Amino acid sequence: MLTCTIAGYSQYVWNIEAEKKNEIHRRDSTTWDQKLFEIDLNNFREQNIPGGVFPVPRYNPTGEKSFIGLGYDGNFKGVMINNKRFLYNCFYATKNKFNASFIGDKQQDVFFTIAISTDFIDPKGFSHLRSSIYSRNHPNYLAKGYYKTKNNTIDFNAFITGDRNAYAILNERIFNLAIGKMILIVPQQDGSLRSMQIEIPLLSIEKTKDYVEQILKENNEVINFYSCAKCI
Description:
Layout (H helix, E strand, L loop, with lengths): L1 E5 L2 E6 L1 H12 L6 H14 L22 E12 L2 E11 L5 H4 L4 E10 L11 E9 L2 E9 L4 E8 L5 E5 L2 E4 L5 E6 L5 E6 L6 H14 L1 H7 L6
Parallel strand pairs: 5-11
Antiparallel strand pairs: 1-2, 3-4, 4-5, 6-7, 7-8, 8-9, 9-10, 11-12
């Protein structure tokens, strides 16, 4: 159960009863955000998005500051560290009444970070990666995308729920983000993958980016992990 009380953010409880109520709202057209639904339908029709779209309840049934926004940031062109090229991405929810009591004075709740060593960058078309973050399950948030190396594709999905459970799935492998919000993927020359889960502190998005690069540059355990003879 999540109970959130902080200055400027009124109390709200996210528990099984709230989830049941939310499920009812998803079936009740009087609670839907019709503007968002039309936007999603138009995108589905115009961009040929596979899978269809669901209507969603209005984001602020509990008042202001229930939802502020989502985002991601990182290095998408490739950064050279210790003779290896890395890409990374950090996904976050902006401070709202669901996460405020957990993130203190931070303005972003960075819930998932992925980094990968790579041998492929497409500087013009950026076909080597894709990143998206979705609020349509508010107060549960979904990050998804992929990275491409010369001979492999790493698909990822990650989510955090309103009661602070967070998981990621990378190429069908499940990661519990409670033991580390950062996942480092090191592709191998034989086409297999290696993963390392890393605990990182709760920081602003800018400081998280700095921290990721610092870990890749200076942490000996991490350096040894991505420096094997058969590592890309």
